[in-house]
Description:
Strand content: 15-25%
Order of helices and strands: EEHHHEHEHEHEHHEE
Shape: elongated
Number of strands: 8
Helix content: 25-40%
Number of domains: 1
Radius of gyration: 20 Å
CATH class: Alpha Beta
Amino acid sequence: MLSITKVEANEVVPSTRFDDELADTFKRLRLPRGLLERLAGIQERRMWAPGRHFSDGATEAGQAALEQAGIKPEQIGLFINSSVTRDNFEPAVAVGIHHRLGMPSSALNFDITNACLGFINALTVASSMIDSGAIEYALIVNGEDPSPWHRAAIERLKKPGITREQVVEEFATLTWAAVQPLRGGTGRQAPGRPPHRRFRDSRRNPVPRAVHRR
């Protein structure tokens, strides 16, 4: 991998904010404040500030990865976006970021959406294409914005008839964050060396990433 970079969402949201918004529900159901932190260990998460979009972070991370690796956009043969977040089903999120990064029309681009495994899946696809000789460089990014899902979950949990069981069921949604620093990475196969078959993902959270080279 030639480079890996990240861009962090710039607004910190503590779990206590959710406690405040759900204070009436917790009181009615006799649930303690700090329940989310107790169950999931999450004290805070990061969100995009007003005016910032998850694709902005993905684009910035991808650009930084290219610059760090010394690779030009026109050298990229494959671009994959592995985020779960999207504003619409079609076109792919990758299409817009591809355009913003100035990559050539000859570069394949598509989304791989598979929750936390999406980035690993993208690495597998990129490494296979590099090993086969189909492309020389690949760029992979991932950027998330769970705030719409958070708002929807909070509104559901505020309803009068909500039960304790339903509160617990919704907690998984509230653990998702954009803390996923958007990363960009690049990998290279040195001349005369056997192709690299394995890549390790050292990210702490979801974000944009990767450029690889044969």
